[in-house]
């Protein structure tokens, strides 16, 4: 998340938007299962669109967990 925020930070600065992110407890120990580059690309598109289309002065990224249920 921090890498993605770094990439879009200059875009946010030009619009005077403060970028924030919230991690739920223990999020730093998570593993992303899948293509890391694809997940980062999706996050970059979401952040870029949030900056582009917001009229607010703050954009917040929040993480959450998704668990796979056993059948």
Order of helices and strands: HEHE
Structural class: alpha+beta
End-to-end separation: 31 Å
Strand content: 5-15%
Rg is 14 Å
Give the spatial strand order of the biggest sheet: 1-2
Helix content: 40-55%
Q: Give the overall shape, derived from the CA principal axes.
A: globular
Low-confidence stretches: none
- Write down the overall mean pLDDT: 77
Number of helices: 2
Question: How would you describe what is shown here?
Answer:
- There is one protein chain.
- The chain is of the alpha+beta class and 71 residues long.
- It is 44% helix and 14% strand.
- The protein contains two helices and two strands; from the N terminus they run αβαβ.
- It has helices at residues 2-14, 36-53; strands spanning 18-22, 58-62.
- It has a two-stranded parallel sheet with strand order 1-2.
- Helix 2 links the parallel strand 1 and strand 2 (58-62).
- Helix 1 (2-14) packs parallel to helix 2 (36-53).
- The N and C termini lie far apart (31 Å).
Identify the notable features of this structure and list them briefly:
44% helix; 71 residues; globular; alpha+beta; two-stranded parallel sheet; 2 strands
Could you give the topology of this structure?
Layout: H1 2-14, E1 18-22, H2 36-53, E2 58-62
Parallel strand pairs: 1-2
Helix pairs in contact: 1-2
């Amino acid at each position: 998340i921090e890498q993605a925020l770094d990439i879009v930070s200059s875009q946010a600065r030009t619009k005077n938007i403060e970028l924030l992110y919230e991690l739920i407890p223990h999020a730093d120990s998570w593993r992303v299962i899948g293509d890391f580059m694809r997940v980062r690309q999706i996050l970059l598109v979401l952040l870029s669109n949030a900056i582009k289309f917001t009229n607010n002065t703050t954009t917040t990224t929040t993480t959450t967990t998704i668990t796979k249920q056993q059948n």
